Structures are given as C-alpha cells and as structure tokens.
Amino acid sequence: MFYRARLQAAAALASLSLLAGCGLLSDEDSEAKQKIVVGTTSEPSTLDPAAAWDNSWELMRNVFQTLVSFPTGSTRPEPDAADSCVFTDRTSTAYRCTLKEGLKFSNGDKLDAEAVKYSIDRITTIKVKGGPLGMLGSLDRVETKGDDTVVFHLNRPDATFPFILATPAMSLVAPSDYPKDKLREDGKVTGSGPYLLDSYVPGDRAELVKNQGYKGFANRKNNAVTIRYFKGSAPLVDALKKNEVDATYRGLTAEEVVSLEDNKDENSTLQLIETVGADIRFLVFNPEDPAAGNPAVRRAVAQLVDRDALVAKIYQGTAEPLYSMIPKGIAGHTTSFFDTFGNPSQQKAKRILAKAGITEPVAMTFWYTTDRYGSSTEPEFGELKRQLEASGLFKITLKGLPWKKFQEGFTKGQYPVFGRGWFPDFPDPDNFIAPFVGKESVTGTPYNKTEITQHLLPQTRQESDRGAVSKQFEQAQNILVDDVRLLPLWQGKLYVAAGEDIGGGERALDPQTVMQMWELYRKASW
C-alpha cells in the first residue's frame, strides 16, 4: 500500500503539530531508542562551517548550534544557543545576543561569548572563495561583553542579519579545535548541536549519536541517525525499497517521484511527502569568456531556452518554469525574463546575434555537476544542448564533474557557462539577489553592479517589514535581465520519501530546506 501526503504551503505548518500528536503514534520512549537511516545524494563538500555555503549545511545543522535558528513551524529566527537576541538601535546596525547558561562544546570546552566571536571572525579571516564570507558584507566587527553577551556591529543597516546568523554557515565551533586562520581538515567535528558526529566516511556515511550535553530547541525523537551518501538516485531508491534506508531527502529524479505518486509499484509501502520548494536552478555566464562574455550571446541563449519543454520532458511536473531569480512564494517574485524575451524564438535569437556581427554558430561548453542535484541534471543539460543546437545558432559541448571538482573549477572562473542550484539560506528575497552580486558572488565570478549593491539592497535592509521591499527587488531583477549574467531555469518542489513506519517527515524540512534529523522517528505500531 502507498501512503501519500501532499502539503500546501499555507496549510502545511498549521497541520503538522496536529499530525505529530496523532494517537496512532507509539510511546515516545520506545521510539527514541531507534536509529533512523537517511539516504541522500548530497554529500558534504566540507565539515568546516567557515567554508560552507552549499548542501554541507544538511549535516552541519544537526551537529552544530547557531545563535538563532528556525524551529519547526517558524519562518523567523528564534534563539538557539542564545537566550535572546535583539537589535539595540532603530537603524538595525547593532545586534546583541545573550547566551544560554552552561553551554559547552562536545570536547568539554565552554561555549561563551569569546567562542562566538572566534567562530564568526574565522569566516572573515580565512576568506574561503565561494564560502560564506559573502553573507557577512554588512558586518563591521564582533564585540564581547563579559562571558555571555555578543554584539554584532554592522557597517550599514541590515534587517536580514538575524536570518544570516541562523544559517549553518554561522555555526559555533570550539576555538581549541579549529585553527583561527585556516580550515580544519582532520575530518572531525566539535560542536554543541543536537547530535555528535561519531564517525564520518567521505562518500559513504556519517554516524550521528545523541549529544547528551545539548541545550537548545530541538526535541529529538530518536537517539541516533545514520546518513548514507549515494552517488545516484537509482541506488538510493533501491535501498529505500529494500528497507536499507528509512527516509530520503534530495536526489529523487522526476521519474522516481512520478512513479511513487502514481503508485505504480503495488507492493510499495512508501510514503511521499511533498512541500512547496524555493530551490532554483539557473545558468551562470562567465564574463571573462570570449563567447559567454558577449551580451548578445547571452541574450540569444535567453531567447532560445524553452523552460516549458525542459520542465515537461525532464521534470514531469516536479518543477515549474522560473522567469526571475526570486521564485514564487517569496516576496518580490516577478516574471521579468518572460516579460523581456517572451516565448522562445529562433528568429529573434538570430537577429540578436546578427546585430552583434555574429553569423556563424557560437561554440560554447556548458558544465554541470554530476552528483549534487540528482540524476536529472545530466538529461537536463542534454535538453538545453538540444534546444540551442536545434536553432542552428549554437554548438554546445557538455562536461560534467563531481561537485568537489566542479566547485573548484567555477570558483576559479574556469567555466564559460555552468549550472548552479540554489537552496535558500533563509526565506527572504534578499537571499536570491545578494549572494550573486558583488565581489564575493557565490558563483565564483565577481558581478559588480553598483545599482544593486550600493543602492537597492541597502534600501531594503533598512526595512524590517520584508513585505514592503518588493519594488526594490523588482528593479534589481530588471537589471539582472538586462545583463543576462544569470539565467533562471526552474524552481523545484521538495520531496521526502520514507517507509510507512517513519514519522516526522512533514516536519523535517526547515525554511532553509535543510533536514532536521531530530524530527524523524520510528512508529512502533499502527
């Protein structure tokens, strides 16, 4: 039998607490003794928060603490390691946090104000390219006041700063185990989060055990979690069907999702939980490349890409076309790329190139990662190649690499065009614009656009009412359309597949689309 839960964005969080309290669930003490095995195709690229601005956050959220975080059901940051946090001025330039009493790291060291300052200062000292430094552009300095108080002094108003502190990139680390000026590279973790990293085998698994000294908001419904890393979605789903994995997050292909939804396997006892996603996919054009650096070439690509066909053929309803960098469901969303380019047109693209003096097919290489976003990525790029070459205007070569090597390449500016995915750091339009512009762009390619970085973003960050900044973000997206340095393709839906005896999947994904492993539990009876 197949169990299916479809959640709408507005109703999901309201219904979750009722579901969790359902009388069908077994005694909590019995459930807590069970280990949960979770499978994913998203292996961490680093264990050091100072280098993490990617899906490494999945593991970090569960083994580290941040000052503030997103408890289940919350869309605004609330205290975690902190007892309280507040802006101390009306201009949002000084943010003060007071720590909980008695916090300790897993090595026994005290988690005090100096440790918080040390953790944040490491990011600005090490300056990992493509790392989370780009999130701290508004931070001037960190001040400690006694053992329990930290004040973040900002160089400009930034109402989004609490959201930034809630990201796993701002995880608190033990100063005695993490070098001040370089990354930790021994494959170990010293944190204060809900779980301890008992062991880690890159490419294979991470073993998490309950942290008995944890003081935070997480209500852990299991004692231990094994995270297994798979190279592709097929072996992941096979392991799920064989009960070798209890639940999955990230990596299901569209075909696998559709198969589960249609209940094609009559013997299946799996449940599929769907939530509205804010993750996006887009192309990045390198301005230093002779072809991709030509605005006419970029505009011609934008004129040819058929998002409807891409989503229909490759993602079969598990994604939808995206015409701006800010997805649906986030304030400031527009359809600016469609408004500018309209439907795909070979004739319009040809005129764009001819006007720039380009009459021969443009040769370019498109790069993608083979193991970060699931097995659909390769056919997705195959469809992009087909669309562009069918126009007779382009000759596309495709190349794929595992994420770690792929990331090394794009941070060094080696790729003319490459595909990126973005899972939101926090649910705010700022997080779909700011990371991609400025000298520290997460794409690895500086994108200096002063109208956005020096005018529009600063204006929005003075406004604590985030729903009142749509106009500025619409202007920013129009600028992105004019440049076509970034070309949005689609936004996805999120799915958690799990065995019928696993509960908590509805509550497991936070607003950053990071899985909170502590929400999963094994039902002892039905």
Automatic annotation (TrEMBL):
Q: Which Pfam families match?
A: SBP_bac_5
Which superkingdom does the taxonomy of this entry point to? Bacteria
The alphabetical list of record keywords is: Signal, Transport
Keyword rRNA-binding attributed: no
Span of the signal peptide: 1-20
Protein location = Cell envelope
Which part of the chain is the Solute-binding protein family domain? 77-440
Family membership noted in the UniProt record: Belongs to the bacterial solute-binding protein 5 family.
Name this protein carries in UniProt? ABC transporter substrate-binding protein
